[in-house]
Amino acid sequence: MKLPVAVQLYSVRDETEKDFAGTLKKVAEIGYKGVEFAGFGNLPATEMKAILDELGLKAVGSHTSINLLTEKLDEVIEYNITIGNKYIVCPWYKLESKEDILKASQLFNDIGKKIRAAGLRFLYHNHNFEFKKYDGKYGLDILFEGIEDNVMEAEFDTGWIMYAGENPAAYIKKYSGKCPLVHVKDFASTQSPEYTEVGNGLLDVKAVAAAAEENGAEWLIVEQDQCKGSSLESIRISLENLKKMGLA
Questions:
Q1: d(CA 91, CA 4)
Q2: Contact 194, 169 (CB under 8 A)
């Protein structure tokens, strides 16, 4: 059974900035089953829900800045409930020392408890800097060791895990049952961040997809931070490549 495939809308932010609803329509026409948000283009939640329903798109996640999570969490929760999204994701947090990481765990416990109480789930999305070691342990592992049970889960960005020199599939297995959303991001080089379409780079996409399916993931999410040409064409190529591999 193939996992459904969504796209992180940050990939096409140049398009959503011009026409959010129109971009969602194009994403649906390309063939994506769901979208993960990185902002809502100032559209009211009821209007966003209507657009998603009309296009047959599922809201599968929402990247939400730490400022919103700490200052406007009630509004964040209300919006996501209205559009039918159950996963609120912290997409980035400044973690430059072990002290930062320990403080972040406590903050995320507080945020995650409130999100869980509302019937939603809280996730953390990694980059590569969480793979710096402190006392022999990766920062990412220290972060999750400080999280209380059922308070925060992972959204592993497999491209960044590969970029950091680790095995993405192995990391998904390590956190089996705790990574419902998996980002498939590809790099043409691990020497510098040279982004490319999924399937056109170095990521072992089949191994990642297999590990995701075997360990409880619900969605694969395509993300490309930078595109050399048309962002819509890039996400189309990524989906086509996944189809050629039998993964979509």
A1: 21
A2: no
CA separation, residue 176 to residues 3, 55, 90, 122 (Å)? 16, 32, 20, 16
For residues 43 and 49, the answer to whether their CB atoms sit within 8 Å is no
- pLDDT tens, position by position, 128-157: 999 999 999 999 999 999 999 999 999 999
d(CA 18, CA 164): 34
Give me the number of domains the chain comprises.
Answer: 1
Provide the domain limits for residue 123: 5-244
As a whole number of angstroms, the distance between CA 112 and CA 175 comes to 18
36 forms beta bridges with: 8, 61
Helix or strand (DSSP H, E) at 240: helix 231-244
For residue 225, how many other CB atoms are within 10 A of its CB? 15
Decide: pTM greater than 0.90. yes
The CATH number of the domain holding residue 40 is 3.20.20.150
- Residue for token digits 């559009």? 83
Q: What residue type is 42 in one-letter code? A: N
Dump pLDDT digits (tens) for 97-106. 999 999 999 9
